[in-house]
Each structure stands twice: as structure tokens, then as C-alpha cells.
Design goal:
Strand content: 15-25%
Number of strands: 8
Order of helices and strands: HEHHEEHEEHEEEH
Largest sheet: 8 strands, mixed
CATH topology of one domain: Alpha-Beta Plaits
Helix content: 25-40%
Number of helices: 6
CATH class of one domain: Alpha Beta
CATH architecture of one domain: 2-Layer Sandwich
Shape: globular
Oligomer: single chain
Radius of gyration: 29 Å
């Protein structure tokens, strides 16, 4: 067995410092104390943090070389089609494609009206993001109600909290992962939510709280089980001209020309 002998400090090879790029040089210049006292005083520039504190999005701008990941409060929802593979096997790929088209069209419609935003499409699912819990909950709840009579069902998970905004269009933080895991644990037609109980709309009902075992996170207590009743629709008369009313072409033309039925009938 060979023996190792330590070198004396004078014999040790010094570590080579990594070369500085332009950003590091700029930071050094920004943080350095100006040793030139020709103006009669020393100038010290305060350090700009690499990760900013929680903000509102209206803070002062910073130079482009400052690595700034903004910390913001956001509400996340994951909505997923239940049993998409089984649906595809049963009805075929073309029917599955039509189903996804309807699924995405409804999501675009509801999110645009309620103020939520589609962060990314996930095949047979979607990730939504909002700044307030109420509109996000209402968006998911309306989607649950819209698809109730369809041949497929959806489930969803919602979580809120502070995350890092990464490169302007991605979010990093526990609330994102938690919302995804709650969606996986939700039963068909169910919405599991955490941290947004105070903002649940009055037409959305809660059947209690449960403890969810989230993969990669652990046991999460106090998760609300939210559902939507069939009578949650707003009380209003349907539009007789809407395509969903199922009029024939002749009936539709007649109704559009003479909505009050005052013209004599065509023989």
C-alpha cells in the first residue's frame, strides 16, 4: 500500500480562479468601492439581490445582466381528462381528437371570460394560472359543470402560494407541484383545493376536508373536496338562435326572419 505525503504550503499548486464573464465583471464594478477620492468622498453602491423579494410586478427596472427571478403570489390549477386512454380505445383516435378539441375550446372560452390564463397544454390536460383564487376556482368549477353530460369526465387540483417566475413564462415552487398532485388524487368530477378555502364561490359546494398522500410531497392535510351541483347554472333564458338549440335549417331561417311569428305561413 502506497503512502501519501502532504506537501508543504509553499509546494502546493495554487487554485486557478475561473475566468470572469462580462456579467461578473459588471457586478464587481457595481459593488466595488471607488478608491479614487478626487471628488472628496468615497462612493459605495448597494448590492442588488439575485432573487428579489416578493413583488407586485411594478418595481423599478434593473440592468439586464442582473439575474432576477421575481417572486410572486399565484394560483395554479391542473385540469385533466379522466381515462383518456380508455376513451381512445373505446371510441377511436378520431373521436378522442374531437373530444380534446372540445375540451380545449371550452377551456379557452371560460378562462378568457373569467380572467384565468392557460400556462401550458399537457396533452389531455392543462395548467392554468391566475392572480386571485376566486376566478381560478370558478373557471375549474364551470368546466366541471360543462362536461358533466359528456362521454368523458375531468378532475382538477388547485393550490396557491409564492413561486419564482422563471424566464418570464415558467413557474418554480411547491404550489405548482402540489396542484398537479392534487389533480392526480381527485376523483372524476372532483376538485381538490388547498389554501383557497376563503375564496370559494357560493355556488361551489364543499364536502369536507381530507388528507391527500401526494407523490413526492407526502401527506397533505386540510385539502378541500369541492363539487358543483347541477343547479349551479345562472338563472337565464336560453338564446333561441344558439346552435345548441337544435333547430333545423328551415326553422332557423324562419325564426331569424320572423322571431315573433307575425308573418303569414308559407304554403
Amino acid at each position: 500500500m502506497s503512502s501519501r505525503t502532504s506537501r508543504s504550503p509553499s509546494q502546493k499548486r495554487p487554485k486557478v480562479a475561473a475566468p470572469l464573464d462580462n456579467a461578473h465583471r459588471a457586478v464587481r464594478r457595481l459593488l466595488a468601492v471607488d478608491s479614487d477620492t478626487a471628488s472628496g468622498f468615497d462612493r459605495v453602491t448597494e448590492q442588488i439581490p439575485a432573487i428579489a423579494p416578493q413583488g407586485t410586478g411594478t418595481e423599478r427596472p434593473v440592468p439586464e445582466w442582473v439575474e432576477l427571478n421575481q417572486s410572486l403570489y399565484r394560483v395554479f390549477a391542473f385540469v385533466d381528462v379522466c381515462g383518456f386512454t380508455k376513451y381512445t380505445d373505446q371510441y377511436g383516435a378520431h373521436a378522442a381528437t374531437e373530444m380534446l378539441t372540445r375540451f380545449r375550446s371550452a377551456i379557452r372560452d371560460v378562462t378568457a371570460r373569467r380572467g384565468a390564463r392557460v400556462a401550458k397544454w399537457l396533452g389531455d390536460g392543462v395548467m392554468l394560472v391566475g392572480t386571485e383564487p376566486g376566478p381560478v376556482i370558478a373557471t375549474v368549477a364551470e368546466l366541471l359543470l360543462r362536461f358533466r353530460d359528456d362521454a368523458f369526465e375531468i378532475h382538477a387540483g388547485i393550490a396557491a402560494g409564492t413561486v419564482l417566475l422563471f424566464e418570464g413564462d415558467d413557474y418554480i415552487g411547491r404550489p405548482v407541484n402540489l396542484a398537479a398532485r392534487l389533480c392526480e388524487a381527485a376523483a372524476p368530477g372532483e376538485l381538490l383545493a388547498l389554501g383557497v378555502e376563503a375564496e370559494v364561490p357560493d355556488w361551489v359546494t364543499s364536502s369536507g376536508t381530507v388528507t391527500v398522500r401526494a407523490v413526492g410531497i407526502g401527506d397533505v392535510a386540510g385539502v378541500s373536496q369541492l363539487r358543483v351541483d347541477d343547479n349551479a347554472w345562472a338563472p337565464m333564458s336560453p338564446s333561441p338562435l344558439h346552435p345548441s338549440m337544435g333547430w333545423s335549417d328551415q326553422e332557423f331561417v324562419s325564426l331569424a326572419v320572423d322571431p315573433d311569428g307575425l308573418l303569414p305561413a308559407t304554403p
